[in-house]
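Entry for the shared binder. Reason: the reviewer on the internal report wants the predicted structure included alongside the sequence.
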Amino acid sequence: MQLILIKDGQQIDITANSGSYSRSDNTDSLGMEFGFEIALNPNDKYWAKSRPAPGDKLLFANKDKPVFEGIITDELIHDQYTYAYTAYDFGYYLNKSEVIAQFNGLAGDAAITKLCGQLGIPIGSIASIPTSIKQIYNGQVLSECIKDILQQATDDTGRKFRLEVRDNKLYIEDYADLVIKAMYQPASNIEPYDVTLAPGKLSGSQSMTDMRNIIVVASSKEKSISIQATAQDDASIAKYGMLQKVEKVDDKNKAQAKNIAANKLTELNKITQKINLHLMGDDAVRAGRILEFNQPSIDMVGGYLVKNCTHSYSNNNHTMQLELEAINNG
């Protein structure tokens, strides 16, 4: 592991005086957070004197591969010798900058490209999003505008998208393309293994709190009420009772309204299963990835979406604490 501080244009290796590395992200936020501590002793000439500060840049590498690059935003002084820092990747700027735009039927991917162009945000790749966007954004934060477009696309098509920053570029990808196999290699002379085969401490929950088995799509106009489409699951209603959600949208044609109702029903008509699980670490795992499990002894079979992910690096050990949500597992 190596931690590089980039200060006043200079790269300074602070690995020897730092530790308690962690990085985390979740599906509800855009940026990845990185935390670390550093020990400084201004009275000892043999100790490093480079004290990080908000605005400095960081580069963290594991096994010679960069896994985090970002900007320090916060400093916490524990005592005169120990300092703790929080940094975020460059998704931080998408959460802070506001835009103005009006779209009159532009495809979702083109609308996102245009919004990013206003602020000079470099784009890695954007999935094809043909959903027509008719929306005015006036002073909203860029990340919220993009999330709104993606939600419209999900409602229209049923596809779900992951928005994240990697290598200082914006990526928007279909969740279906983010299934990975997480591997851990204990030592250079030992073959890596699939971490899902050796799950650690586990806790979890099941809930019908968010279940909805009737979806009504209605016009968002305030002066009149117009129900545009309805979708429902009679078997679910018979078992769990009537749980209705009214989805207000701008006027849509009949086909669009039916799509929205059907896709919302598919999304919400289920028991939510969440698992908190400790695993050995793989840097490829982050929020938005899907892991496949085949562990019937702990009732984990099928795909699980990583909702929250925290990596910890200590004493040359790499572990992960994951919050997982079952997907399409019956």
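Summary line for the report: The chain has a mean pLDDT of 89.
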